Amino acid sequence: MEGSAEEELERRSKFLSSLIQKKKAIEQEDQHDYLNVRVRASDMPLALQNRAFRCARDHLDSMPSKLDSKRLALALKKAMEFVHVKKATRERGCAAIDGKREVIKVLSFYKAYVTPLSHSYFEFLLPILKPTDMEISHVVEDNRNEDMQDSQTLLSSKSCVSSQNEYTQEVEPGPPHESLFLVLAYLPLFELLAMSEVCMSLRDAVHNDVLLWLNIIVERPLSSRLSDGILMKITSKASGRLKTLVLINCEKITDDGLQLVIRKNPHINKLFLPECTGLTPEGVIRAVKTLSENHHGLESLRIHGIYNIKKDHFDTIRSYFQMKLPQHQRQQPILFHHRNSPKFRNEESNPMIDIDVDICPKCNNVSMVYDCPRETCKKKSCKACNLCIPRCEECGECIIESEELEATACGDNLCSNCWLQLPKCNFCNQPYCKLHINHQHRLSGSTGFVCDACHVKFVATLGACYC
Amino acid sequence: MASSSTSVVVSNKEKENKNTKKVTLKSSDGESFEVDESVAMESQTIKHIIEDGCANNEIPLPNVTSGILSRVIEYCKKHKEAAGESEPSVTSYTSNSTTNPLTEWDTEFVKVDQNTLFDLILAANYLDIKGLLDLTCKTVADMMKGKTPQEIRETFHIKNDYTPEEEAEVRKENQWAFE
After folding, report:
1. pLDDT in tens, B141-158
2. From the list A116, A127, A183, which residue is nearest B121 (CB)?
3. A147-A124-A88 Cα angle (round to 5)
4. Cβ-based neighbour number of residue A294 at 10 Å
5. CB-CB contact of A315 with A309 (8 Å)
6. Which residue of A353, B79, B101, B157 has the smallest Cβ count within 10 Å?
7. Any idea where the F-box domain is (chain A) (predicted)?
8. Alpha-carbon distance A341 to A360, whole Å?
């Protein structure tokens, strides 16, 4: 009966091989116990592994109490030198060893040593590590032909990864810290693009995460470089789910360009277009109309700085907003000195303000209309545009006509109280308002500052005496 | 006059006695912190643990070390106090953000070294504390403002792992932004 004999033979050989496997596994376990090692994951052949562990154990034992990762890493590297390494490929960070690909990575206590490839392993390892002496999970194989910097042999210890600041920091460049990926969501467009150029893992994060592209903020220095085509490309990343679009002073954007974006992204609820001088009021009306057609999603709009907005344009726009909110909500007053705070500009817009402009009660033009924070003015209607009622840049109070307007270095208006409080130029005794404070020229060897004009007149020409 | 002032004193005491419910948080390195439950509930993660009834003894936080946890607790305490004191609409239009005492405190709070800041971000994310996450992330975002990729690499010690070809490709893509 040949069939059964064959079967019997097979069965026996299987049994034997499983016995051998078990024995090997037990040996391996013993080895690990002996060395006090816990392997999390490894692609290394067993022999190599054991060699690595033995070497690491020897070194650990010989080292004084404090764990010196770098030394250990270098020692391991030496021990593995017999391995023939071919040129490492960048994406995988692994080496071709004798034709096969074996990836060996060891995670370090020092985050700086963690390669971008092991980023995903990083998250895998974050939960509590077992209190073993040494945990070797992966070791990045180095390329012997390249210099030492590329070798990233690392070890981790039982402490949690995040307590690394207790140890002296080596400031060698490495992969980006995890938290930087969380910060991406808070970056305006320019910084986001810069980050995508920093390294590959960041680029992947920037390109693949839709959430980063749902709120687009374009400000200096990108404003003047943004064209219709590029805007279309950027907004297409949101796959139609764009929520906020903030374009500050983007002169090249035209009505048609804007309309295309709006049509593709009908769920925009914040549309900020201050000082986008390429737009016309008709274009804005068209955009608002499109947005209110679908789900009345548009909640706030900023259009100051767009030329030629007249009363009827404004009324039309207002009517679209009123369609959405039947309730007659008295919107919160806009205060002058808040207009440059980030809260008002683009970040968290005051939810009560749907449109930033209004019709000035005094001159009937469409512009930003401010209320007065002054106590006595709250009863009266001290509400008008900046041209009709001049206001102090700092506190926003209306400047009483009888008071003399004090001179300022930046040319802005200040009431006497604020004028008194601000520091003055050493030469002409004029202050800068807080907005223009960066125009101050500081001189070494003396306190205070010199304003731009005086700096040109006196300091620059005199030269050497002042730094 | 005297009677009204004493009644104020009494009501304050009552308030104090109410909020004595405490929870213990345990950091990854074994240190325990006892805090008011209301302060701990600033963290949505902890709030869910407590509400699910799983917080009998201590709440272990294996991803947060004691140094970072103590700072986070400081933040939560301060913000809980501030929320209790001011009116419900914290953003009253008369208060300028620069004179808001909480903003000043926040600014001082984030004046720490880079690694601590990063760890705070991770902790705020893990513990789901929106205010702290916003604050720390915005601080780091401000550090990046206006920087070129090389400057960002230097500031945050990031290694450039692009191949020359890929780098050229990505630069070309973003050329319009950096001219």
Report:
1. 999 988 889 999 999 999
2. A183
3. 25
4. 11
5. no
6. B101
7. 176-216
8. 22
B159 touching chain A per CB within 8 A: yes
Altogether, the residues listed in chain A come to a count of 467
Q: State the Cα–Cα distance between residues A158 and A129, nearest whole angstrom.
A: 6
* CATH number of the A214-385 domain: 3.80.10
pTM: 0.61
Residue A445 structure tokens: 């060897």
**Rounded Cα–Cα distance for residues A334 and A328 (Å):** 17
Torsion of CA A268, A269, A275, A276, to 10 degrees: 10
CA of residue B57 relative to chain centroid, distance:
25
Q: How many helices (H) and strands (E) does chain B have?
A: 10, 3
Q: Distance between terminal CA atoms of chain B?
A: 71
In single-letter form, the type of residue at position A21 comes to: Q
Residue with tokens 């009324």: A315
For chain B, say whether A186 makes contact (Cβ under 8 Å).
Answer: yes
Average pLDDT, 10 consecutive residues per value, chain A (467 residues) = 76 81 71 64 64 70 61 60 36 33 36 39 39 38 38 35 45 87 92 92 91 89 89 90 90 92 89 90 90 78 88 87 59 65 54 78 86 77 82 80 73 82 85 80 79 81 59
Q: Write out the DSSP string of A107-167.
A: --SSGGG--GGGHHHHHHH-SPPP--SEEE---PPP-TTS-GGG-----B-SS-GGGGGGS
